[in-house]
Design brief:
Length: 191
């Protein structure tokens, strides 16, 4: 079984990347295959609502990275989405990816359905819950099972880079507990 972790921050060595890496490390210890994908340097245009995905079974836009990322999402049994929080919401590049992925999957046998996954949001001070809810809504509309943790998987970190994430012991604990639960649910669903 494979879990794809997608980090939505465009910063190198970002806090968001560190929280997603922590979750993936737990999953690797549980024997799952993992892949980390950063949206840094990726071109993903927003959905234009053209509905060509209904006819063509793919997104009609030909930006560089979307098709490859979507193929990885389809192939994985698990998906973790990590987003920094700016202005109390998920970052635009992540939402562009998710909107387009949902449209293509919906019109193509709902191929995201029956996967397992969950969100991680990272902010300096506030806005986590709104962004966390946005990601939860994406998992739910796609029929993806979301295991819980011991608290919401939100990280407290600022603009200082990955060292802030490393100092958030409580946030890292909740992310690790979430990953443990994700591995348990996947083992039961895919046994």
């Amino acid at each position: 079984m494979k879990v794809l972790g997608i980090a939505g921050s465009l910063r190198p060595d970002s806090n968001t990347l560190q929280y997603v890496k922590t979750a993936l490390a737990v999953l690797e210890k549980r024997g799952l295959e993992t892949e980390l994908l950063s949206l840094k340097g990726k071109t993903i245009h927003p959905c234009v609502g053209c509905y060509k995905c209904v006819e063509e079974a793919r997104c009609a836009q030909d930006d560089d990275d979307f098709a490859d990322i979507l193929a990885k999402m389809e192939a994985a049994e698990g998906i973790i989405l990590g987003s920094p929080v700016y202005l109390s919401s998920v970052v635009p590049q992540m939402m562009s990816l998710l909107a387009r992925a949902t449209f293509v999957a919906h019109w193509n046998d709902k191929f995201l359905k029956d996967k397992v996954g969950g969100p991680i949001t990272v902010a300096r001070r506030a806005g986590h819950n709104l962004a966390f809810s946005q990601l939860l809504l994406w998992f739910f509309i796609n029929g993806i099972t979301v295991p819980g943790s011991t608290y919401w998987t939100v990280g407290m970190a600022g603009a200082s880079g990955a060292r802030d994430a490393a100092d958030d012991e409580e946030g890292m604990m909740h992310v690790s507990n979430f990953a443990e639960n994700l591995a348990t649910v996947m083992a039961k669903l895919y046994a």
